[in-house]
Amino acid sequence: MLHWYIPDGESPAALNEDHIRSTIKGLEVIQEQGGGLMGFVQSYRSLLSVPRPDKSIVAVQKLLEKVHVLMDQENRDGTVHFTIVTDPMDLELFIDEKQISQILVNLGKNALQSLKGQEKGHIHIMGGDQ
Fold it and tell me: What is the C-alpha separation between 108 and 2, in angstroms, rounded?
């Protein structure tokens, strides 16, 4: 059953089209915000359900070179210089390459964003025990 709220002192006839439009617009905004919150909750849940790592032996130098290539794509204007150092050069890790790559790319993007607008930005990526 639908019930209308009518402010004190107003008659049902006072519910004109402007009131109805305003109410509908308000309900649409509430629905939109609710949908946005549901999307946020779904995203948060997907973060909590990270897949089990698919670990393998990965050469750190090759991993960092892949990240470097991806970062160069993000750095189209070329204002930020990247340096990659792996010591020892043959260093290997037992990791989930996809998960670690995603983490490193996200860190790289954050670093690029923080250097935006600077003329001579530099990101130094190191693997090993420097």
Answer: 54
